[in-house]
TrEMBL record, chains A, B:
It catalyses: isopentenyl diphosphate + (2E)-geranyl diphosphate = (2E,6E)-farnesyl diphosphate + diphosphate. GO terms for cellular component: cytoplasm. Gene3D superfamilies: Farnesyl Diphosphate Synthase. Its cofactor is Mg(2+). It holds the Pfam family polyprenyl_synt. Keywords: Isoprene biosynthesis, Magnesium, Metal-binding, Transferase. Its EC number is 2.5.1.10. It comes from Anaerovibrio slackiae. GO terms for biological process: terpenoid biosynthetic process. InterPro entries: Isoprenoid_synthase_dom_sf, Polyprenyl_synt, Polyprenyl_synt_CS, Prenyl_diphosphate_synthase. Belongs to the FPP/GGPP synthase family. The keyword Transferase applies. This is Farnesyl diphosphate synthase. GO terms for molecular function: (2E,6E)-farnesyl diphosphate synthase activity; metal ion binding.
């Protein structure tokens, strides 16, 4: 895994995010502050990194699409702010920092989320250097992924199944919406922006779905074996909250095996690519070594 | 005012909205129910009507743009759901019906709002019969109007100025965001979709800003002189909540005069148009006779 390249890209993304915030939110400084608090709270920037890596994989230059990449990070951040709200997961901490509503109050947290989601589309719309038709396709990917049949739908399923034991099939459906859809949109958007062929797009979609699944399984594993100080939230919360996860529905060992198999499938999907997909390969392999 | 035409268009819009909901939310029926509850709660459908009327004014056929018109109604509806939340205005009733969170709970109300906002973009993206570049422009109008420098920004200013006496200048800025921006986006989008010239777009933008202002002033007047049974919410709430309004900052008579002057300005902006703008003229004049 080329950590240098990753860190360089994180810097690029974060500089672009700050620029977007500065340009857009001068009207109401308190709102800008709340948006920035969550948007600049660190994190792996995995979704924008995936946008760029997918573009690289199809032979384009990933860094040309930092604008669209920023948009997806804003959508991701809005979803975290709303998920943490008292009416939802009621979390006080996120990545070791107080959650948005703990700092800015519930009303402003709701509005900062709304603002980030809306501005995300504006930011994507300012992506340069691609035909209008391509930009429309990317916006379509993003809006479908984030909407009622994607991220929001998954969140509702999660909410409605709290305290219930759900089947492996329902668990998959929930995560396909809650986290999978946005990973898929990130990777497909990068591919579309980079001018992917049909075959490349199909291969990357398979990769994306495996990536999302492996991400979720390893997330569930981390909740059992993770180091609180490193992941920034208490471990064992899934078991305490009687949440169905890939670990609670099977076992730790089986979950680890499923994660490894899924990563293997993701790698197989990339077989049609050469060295341009090295970063994507490294990224999915890295999931098996996650410590946060 | 041609009420027949209005009612026909409302039917067209509502049929399209129902179709969008059905197609999109099958995954999670409870979420679909919550979205539909608020989206189909009636209302004047003023924003989609304005999209179509603006397209008519520039010589296009307004009904061709029902798709984009639906998108803006979904954005408007999301904003009402979130505004009513306990953490925000904490309203129990809207248009004489229980608010979304009173029926579906706070978490689902937040998520239904999020889903409507996101799906709005998807719905607009499915607008047919316009060049890709035009659709991108419309999406830009909508995302800027609904975002941190528009609707959400106005809502934050409103929240932060609660219980304070603000200046007429601040009041204008707040409403320009909170309600004005979306009226502007509706009218400009309709004009852009209809192929407006620069001069037509400029005239309709002036009309839009006057329309938004007159709408707000007459809204403030209604809060004083309205009939509770007709407007579907208690009158006199602005005074009780010590809200700054066009009435409390001036007087009922002055507010009425300002409304009439603003409507006159809107009509003057339409002077470059012929009969195609009759509906827009009727619409703004109707504001002076609002009873809800």
């Amino acid at each position: 895994m080329d950590k240098t390249q990753w860190n360089e890209r994180i810097k690029l993304i974060e500089a672009a995010l700050l620029k977007e915030l500065g340009a857009e939110t001068a009207l109401v400084p308190r709102l800008a502050e709340s948006m920035e608090y969550s948007l600049m709270a660190g994190g792996k920037r995995l979704r924008p990194i995936l946008v760029m890596a997918a573009a690289d994989a199809v032979g384009a230059r990933g860094t040309d699409f930092v604008q669209a990449a920023c948009g997806i990070e804003m959508i991701h951040t809005y979803s975290l702010i709303h998920d943490d709200l008292p009416a939802m997961d009621n979390d006080d901490y996120r990545r070791g920092k107080l959650t948005n509503h703990k700092v800015f109050g519930e009303a402003l947290a709701i509005l900062a989320g709304d603002a980030l989601l809306t501005q995300a589309f504006e930011v994507i719309l300012r992506q340069q250097g691609v035909p209008a038709q391509v930009l429309l396709e990317v916006l379509r990917e993003m809006s479908i992924a984030a909407g009622p049949n994607g991220m929001v739908g998954g969140q509702v399923i999660d909410m409605l199944s709290e305290g219930k034991r759900i089947s492996m099939e329902e668990l998959r459906k929930m995560h396909m919406g809650k986290t999978g859809a946005l990973f898929r949109a990130a990777i497909r958007s990068g591919a579309i922006l980079g001018g992917a062929s049909e075959a490349q797009l199909a291969a990357l979609t398979t990769y994306a779905d495996c990536f999302g699944l492996a991400f979720q399984i390893t997330d569930d594993i981390l909740d059992v074996v993770g180091d609180e100080a490193v992941i920034g939230k208490p471990v064992g919360s899934d078991e305490r909250n009687e949440k169905s996860t890939y670990v609670t529905l099977t076992s730790l060992d089986e979950a680890k095996k499923l994660a490894a198999d899924t990563v293997q499938q993701a790698l197989e999907a990339l077989e049609i690519f050469g060295d341009e997909a090295k970063f994507l390969r490294d990224l999915v392999k890295m999931l098996l070594e996650r410590n946060k």
